[in-house]
């Protein structure tokens, strides 16, 4: 039960503000998150981590000497936006390139991936390493699909110690990947968590029961059992991890491993110690030497009651990186010389853009239509926000309506500003795209950013945009969303609507029908496709334990896309000539 | 809800075992608790802390360089026994004397006080400093009666830094007292906590309500209100503390203060940060400079949902001690050189006594009667354990029956061993006294230790013990219990029975009645007095929020004393000659 907050919407920002106020010796606030307050050696690789809020000490509590250089901090359980990641990485960069590392969740993969592209485009050498330690989230042969949980710490610590040692980006990336490949976690949960302002838990576990392998956002587990004794819990965790040894570890006997027994929020320290007592005995019996064990709360999920065990199978290369000193607000080990706190400040907001590329009269005219369309999107989402939230709560975390609202409003405002500067349709939509992705965060924010940007790019600022250009843009948007979202038709996502929409639009345009009429056909196809998603099952990652319950309910992202398509048709029909 | 345990009775011991297994770089297990695993400079004052389990990181998590030298660890919410404190202090002592410092709770005051006496008797210079920071637990003019909560950390840290600086015991004591005098805490709670194996919370707060000033074991608060916003909570905490400035701090403006925003168990980090955001603003507006603020879980109460704010008003003497480096499992600041871990081990058990003082034939005969009496006590307590627990649950924490059972069984076993060595009545009862106090812990354990020891001392090992000697012993026991327990007649404690019992016994003996007959009268007086305690209100400290509910229910300690008096009469009557 999360009780202490002001307004739920401000919770993540206010928590970050208070966190920084309490930890000025370690961190400094920058747009998008925090970076170290202590100086970093020039040329050192910057390790930038991040994710949603609600997992403290992940991620801001892990920023400091010997650990991360910066953390991008998203909203509650929502990934930071690509712009946030980009801003934090720029602030953390000290000339040696940037490693972005984070847990494997759809929204994070999207936004960190976009930030990586942007940084490389700007000439900052940047790579990503995704943490996939949760063995219950996919089979060994699909280990790349696994979620990242408390194993984050093993990968972050390894990468940061390698960076601190002055290794080049290639080596830091190699060692981070090696650490991830040799890290395995497994967890159990006894209760869900209640987000600020929510009147019900995000997900639940029946009283007296244990969900085996349940994800930290309620992603589906493997099975359910009665709450065990502490010793039984330890035996389940250890035996499960010893049964899936990583490549290169043929037998546990004689091995050395970093050990993390992680509490998820309301399993208390004494309980963790009672469990660790038995974990230590079992590892000893198996011939495994525990190196610098960590027992406590390292990656939490608000007040979720659960515990996970992580084994980080060390070798001569990894052990010194795991045991190297570190000094972050929530993670300290070894001895470091005292460090000065650099006074250097940061602007809380980036300077607003004041110029836009030259645009033709025709394109500026089309920009007015584009802005009207954005206004129509805002109205439609506003009308349907509650309905979208209800639909999303069935298979998602119920915040789709809020995210779409935040995103569409920011997109319209950015579009209006761009128009005021005389932007053409392409630039107007690209500004709107960035604003939507940045303000909304999460998966849908990123995907809508892609859609608007692709359409904007197809329209450009010089030609009079015709139906063919719009159709090219929508097709490119569908391709971009599938690529970035790693989703295909049938996964019960907006892709199930965007692909038929693009298809119908393309056909109608090929038949030579004018834009408004072609779009009408596309919107109709979208509406039918959205309804049809009710018969699909959501793919892993976005799914909740009661995913199957979502059969019969359409996907929220698919429904909002169909609603938007229809609203845009209204604008195009009105402009019809 | 505490879910992960094996057997509730073993919880505290197993948690300590797991804690040590996870923190071998910092601490080493010794009988009674833990001491630093790192070497301490010879001649340095040893700061020994302690208290019940269930408050992690208090107390074992605060042992390490720059913080405590050792911690005596009691059972769940029960003070460690005097013998535990004594053993830990002996292990921690490095020639500079010992400071025992702990929160102001009856059981801790008793046991640490006895340990202090024992250490001084052994030639180890020892003092105690009791922490009394919780302003809601007594009025300013009665500040010595206040409970110790998160302010423990301010006092422990100050004392330990002073010791680390090489100051002599007198100075360490003076600075610890000064720190306590300048430390104030105030807290609110939203829910109680559930102990391992308990099927109901130890105490509760109505859903959606906030108990203002509620103690960490459920001791009575000041008032109740609706759960506030985070900002409102911060405003209540700060304004209350600024309204009671310590002596020597006339105005907050221009002052520097250590700040501790403490979570009690299931208020999560992000919530604490949202509250701290406003706390920092308010302190700033009041002109108070926050020095090394600590925001997190420092003194918890299992899964109790609550938060407390502590202000430690610094001066030029105290600030360097507050900011000095420290490296304990759950508290680290600043930079310390790496330290070796001393391999030196400790026997888990003290060598059993194998000799007893010479005893006369008459005294050895009386010892047999004394052992029969102890056996009768065990039987009586065993029969009534559940009933005593039920009575205790009304105004106490419901563990009276368990404590009396553990204590009486240990006393009988120790008596049996002493008899095997040919002990007289005096020695037998003194061994029984130590065993009872050590095994039972808590307040009643200490008091029963006093009773048996006083009677044993009066009987001695040489004379044939007569009624007068027994009466002298019981009178001395009543005096000792009142002195040690700081309780008077009318406080609804065992004193309300022990005093009339001693009085009736003394009168009957003065009238020349034989022991058995005199004891019969005393037992009858005890039974009447025990019933009469139903009309009394428990004094603060042992009381629960629903203390007034205990009107109509007698005191469990009083009832068990009356039961024991009657059982002992049975033995004396049987021996009657």
Automatic annotation (TrEMBL), chains A, B:
<keyword id="KW-0808">Transferase</keyword>
<dbReference type="InterPro" id="IPR036117">
    <property type="entry name" value="DhaL_dom_sf"/>
</dbReference>
<dbReference type="InterPro" id="IPR004006">
    <property type="entry name" value="DhaK_dom"/>
</dbReference>
<feature type="domain" description="DhaL">
    <location>
        <begin position="368"/>
        <end position="570"/>
    </location>
</feature>
<protein>
    <submittedName>
        <fullName>Dihydroxyacetone kinase family protein</fullName>
    </submittedName>
</protein>
<feature type="region of interest" description="Disordered">
    <location>
        <begin position="339"/>
        <end position="360"/>
    </location>
</feature>
<keyword id="KW-0547">Nucleotide-binding</keyword>
<dbReference type="Pfam" id="PF02734">
    <property type="entry name" value="Dak2"/>
</dbReference>
<dbReference type="InterPro" id="IPR050861">
    <property type="entry name" value="Dihydroxyacetone_Kinase"/>
</dbReference>
<dbReference type="GO" id="GO:0016301">
    <property type="term" value="F:kinase activity"/>
</dbReference>
<keyword id="KW-0067">ATP-binding</keyword>
<keyword id="KW-0418">Kinase</keyword>
<dbReference type="InterPro" id="IPR004007">
    <property type="entry name" value="DhaL_dom"/>
</dbReference>
<dbReference type="Pfam" id="PF02733">
    <property type="entry name" value="Dak1"/>
</dbReference>
<feature type="domain" description="DhaK">
    <location>
        <begin position="7"/>
        <end position="331"/>
    </location>
</feature>
């Amino acid at each position: 039960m999360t009780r202490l907050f002001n307004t739920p919407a401000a919770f993540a920002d206010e928590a970050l503000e208070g966190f920084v106020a309490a930890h000025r010796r370690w961190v400094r606030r920058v747009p998008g998150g925090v970076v170290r307050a202590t100086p970093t050696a020039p040329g050192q690789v910057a390790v930038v981590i991040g994710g949603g809020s609600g997992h403290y000490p992940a991620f801001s509590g892990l920023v400091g000497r010997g650990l991360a250089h910066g953390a991008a901090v998203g909203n509650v359980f929502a990934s930071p936006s690509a712009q946030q990641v980009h801003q934090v990485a720029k602030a953390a960069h000290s000339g040696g390139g940037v490693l972005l590392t984070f847990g494997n969740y759809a929204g994070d993969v999207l936004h960190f991936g976009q930030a990586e592209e942007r940084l490389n485009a700007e000439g900052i050498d940047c790579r990503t390493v995704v943490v996939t330690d949760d063995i219950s989230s996919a089979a060994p042969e699909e280990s790349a699909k696994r979620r990242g949980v408390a194993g984050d710490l093993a990968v972050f610590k390894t990468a940061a110690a390698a960076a601190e040692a002055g290794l080049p980006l290639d080596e830091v990336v190699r060692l981070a990947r090696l650490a991830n490949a040799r890290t395995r976690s497994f967890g159990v949960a006894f209760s869900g968590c209640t987000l600020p302002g929510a009147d019900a838990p995000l997900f639940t576990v029946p009283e007296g029961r244990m969900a085996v392998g349940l994800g930290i956002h309620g992603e589906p587990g493997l099975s359910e059992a009665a709450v065990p004794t502490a010793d039984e819990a330890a035996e389940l965790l250890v035996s499960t991890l010893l049964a899936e040894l990583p490549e290169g570890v043929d037998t546990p006997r004689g091995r050395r491993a970093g050990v993390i027994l992680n509490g998820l929020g309301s399993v208390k320290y004494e309980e963790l110690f009672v469990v660790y007592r038995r974990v230590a005995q079992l590892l000893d019996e198996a011939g495994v030497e525990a190196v610098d064990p960590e027992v406590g709360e390292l990656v939490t999920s608000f007040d979720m009651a659960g515990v996970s065990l992580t084994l980080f199978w060390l070798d001569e290369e990894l052990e010194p990186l795991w045991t190297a000193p570190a000094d972050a607000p929530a993670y300290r080990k070894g001895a470091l010389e005292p460090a000065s706190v650099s006074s250097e400040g940061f602007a809380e907001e980036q300077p607003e853009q004041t110029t836009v590329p030259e645009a033709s009269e025709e394109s500026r005219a089309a920009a007015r239509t584009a802005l009207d369309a954005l206004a129509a999107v805002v109205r439609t989402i506003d009308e349907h926000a509650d309905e979208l939230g209800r639909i999303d709560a069935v298979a998602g975390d119920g915040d789709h309506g809020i995210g779409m609202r935040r995103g569409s409003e920011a997109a319209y405002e950015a579009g209006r500003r761009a128009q005021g500067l005389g932007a053409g349709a392409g630039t107007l939509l690209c500004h709107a795209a960035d604003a939507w992705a940045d303000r909304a965060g999460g998966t849908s924010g990123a995907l809508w950013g892609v859609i608007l940007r692709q359409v904007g790019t197809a329209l450009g600022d010089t030609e009079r945009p015709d139906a063919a250009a719009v159709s090219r843009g929508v097709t490119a948007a569908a391709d971009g969303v599938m690529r970035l979202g790693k989703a295909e038709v049938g996964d019960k996502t907006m892709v199930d609507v965007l692909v038929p929409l693009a298809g119908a639009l393309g056909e109608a345009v090929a038949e030579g029908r004018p834009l408004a009429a072609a779009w009408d056909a596309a919107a109709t196809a979208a509406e039918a496709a959205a309804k049809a998603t009710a018969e699909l099952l959501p793919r892993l990652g976005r799914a909740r334990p009661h995913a199957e319950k979502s059969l019969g309910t359409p996907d929220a992202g698919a429904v909002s896309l169909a609603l938007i398509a229809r609203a845009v048709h209204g604008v195009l029909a009105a402009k019809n000539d």
